[in-house]
């Protein structure tokens, strides 16, 4: 059961701690959903109903895999080790933006379930959902790369290692180069 972090060695008890399932699953819905919106806009521009149907299928696959990523994100939220207070705050924004995007994408898929032409409002909703998803993904990157969430606590600065309590954010090098002095 190493894959599920039960037994074995390491800080989490295994080779694949539960918070690492989220970054392993988020790429599928992001690719499906953003690809679907891009394909749908192309299909609309070229007046290709066959490509619009394919875009709807991609969007449905994105919603299904998005539900999986949301589930793994919930697990990560409750199990991820040390991170900054800023990262913890951003987690709520990340969750809200991505839940909104996923809900809006689900509504678009529901509205597109019939083969008739889709109106501009449905396409605009898809573009808006893609913007929400991109913003949520950007915050996810900040949570990890600047907030230390999911990083082995042994390699983090002492200010971050203890968790998201009252510790200040780790200081940045004066010249802005995070690799200076490593």
Features:
182 residues; mainly alpha; 6 helices; disordered C terminus; elongated
Would you write up a description of this structure?
By secondary structure, the chain is mainly α. The chain has one domain. It is 62% helix and 0% strand. The radius of gyration is 20 Å and the shape is elongated.
Number of domains: 1
Into which percent range does the helicity of residues fall? 55-70%
Q: From N to C, what is the helix and strand string? A: HHHHHH
Proportion of residues in extended strands: under 5%
Low-confidence stretches: 1-10, 165-173, 177-182
Structural class: mainly alpha
Mean pLDDT: 84
List the helices and strands and how they pair.
Blueprint: H1 21-25, H2 27-46, H3 49-79, H4 85-111, H5 120-145, H6 158-161
Helix pairs in contact: 2-3, 2-5, 3-4, 4-5
Summarize the structure.
The chain has 182 residues and is an all-alpha fold. The chain has helices spanning 21-25, 27-46, 49-79, 85-111, 120-145, 158-161.
